[in-house]
Amino acid sequence: AAPEALDRMRQPVLAAMLLGLASPSRGASLAAARASRALRVRSGRAFALTSAVAKEPRFITTPIYYVNGQPHIGHVYTSLACDVVARFSRLDGHKVLFLTGTDEHGQKVEQSACKAGESPQDFADRVSDTFRALLPLYDFSADQFIRTTEARHKEAAAALWSALVESGDLYLGAYEGWYSVRDECFYTEEELVDGNAPTGAEVEWVAESSYFFRLSRYRQRLEEHILANPDFIGPASRRNEVLAFMRDGLRDLSVSRTTFTWGVPVPGPPPPDGLSHVMYVWLDALTNYLTALGYPDTEAADFRSFWPASLHVVGKDILRFHAIYWPAFLMAAGLPLPKRVFAHGWWMNEGEKMSKSVGNVVDPVALVQRYGPDPVRHFLLSDVTFGADGDFSEKKLVESSNAKLANELGNLAYRTLSFTQKQCGGAVPAPDAFSEDDLQLLAEAAALLPQLRTHVDSMALHRYSQGVSGLASAANRYIDVQAPWALKKSEPARMRTVLYVLIEVLRHLALYSQPVTPRIGAALLEQLGVPEGGGRSFAAVGEGSALQPGQPLPPPRIVFQRIEEADEAEGGGEAPPPAAALTAALTAAEEAALVAEVGAAGERVRSLKESGAGSEEVGGAVATLLELKARLPPDHELNAKPAKKKKSKAAKA
Fold this sequence. Notes:
Mean pLDDT: 85
Shape: elongated
Structural class: alpha/beta
Helix content: 40-55%
């Protein structure tokens, strides 16, 4: 059949089946079956968008963040990308393990701790908590927060070292060359730019005894793997950079240090040089991906389920470590390589590189406390092609939130549901016969899922919000053309049909919104009376999950309020945060109860630390404390930043 005839044949029956409102006759069923079969041939998938086939587990990781400084917007961006992929994958039927955490060893941490007048462990504990605090603030759904100072990680790192020894890929030598403490990276003379590292960091000449990893041995195998697996490194421009870097060969890599002590001790008998070696921080840090799954026990349930990793998301500045060093270590240890490494770009601020000296660094905590998580998440994941550099602008964040979240989606939902509340007795209306326009919009809503799946699988994450926005735009055009308010007296049956179609499209928009703007998605699903559970997963896209006529709808409310821009605020002051973007205002009694909970949670953290509890137990208690504090008003005294510790005279001495 011609495509046009096929569409005419399948749309009425399949759309009706989607809505659960029609039991097709035998002839109609045969026609639908033929159409569906033809559609499979043409598109490779049936109209039903869910699959009974078990989906592979997904292990999704951020790099673990170095605790030499406070979190910045780049850390949020990486974690957000992973969170969106993880949330989408769970909704789409995958078992997911989403990992993040902190990298806490190395020379830079030791130096920073000394400057702060703290021990390296106390310094790492304090800074790691600031990274953990981002999880509840930004609604990141990480399953594990790992720290390289944990005992389980030290065991895993030592086991990987031993595996490299057994493979014959480690030997003792002496390193002499340029090293950047800030980057924790070795550089050749040719890589320096104006006497500094390519990142702009200062370098120093280092000469010390060191173990070396035979990286040169793996150049050909790595190149063959990259060429045979085009998706192994993304985007393509980064893949080409890695291949170009490897073209002239790879030098063996120094993987131990002897000039400081804050690191994982090299296992095994004392080396011939008689010095105490600690593992190079990157070999230590990269091992965290294995630690989280139970390594060195390769028969552990999580290791068997989730390794090799599905996706490592990293900033472009640390691609070399993940796309060259890490796979070479794994090859030497006889372990499978991750399926994909994707490197994103950097964020500028109003066209300038962010720098503490310039004073244009974006504070991610202040940002989310001002606007709430959903507007920031939406802006970061929709404004810039994922993988390229971006230009952060608070003005663009406000404009984007108002245009897409408040006007396009929020206004559509409120006027549809408030009109339904008044004209249909606060319940889902019963539709009459569907027009071609109705069927087209319903089909567009259901057919969006495979497009979104493609965007996520290809890491074109910027297109995800664009796809959802496209459906919202189509629904706005539909309501303006159909004008249900003009039908309430002349054609009430048609009015009910139009409202039903809009409500069903809103249900799909709510489902699709959950990965990027989870609070808005949840609020809209509540407005539609969809309970938590399977009805909020992507299994609810398609046949059999439509809202049923007569189903009660909660009283409508605005799911996202427009953000008042600074120049619109009365008196020219700063714009207030959107009420719907932050937590709802607390009553005095609720705030008092929450303050008591925060106090109890803080006491538990102190008690666990004093009793010497493990870092995982302490970390869980800290996460609970931070989540409770995030529910308090941003200006509450318990959310005030603690005063910096003054360096003691003893420390200065």
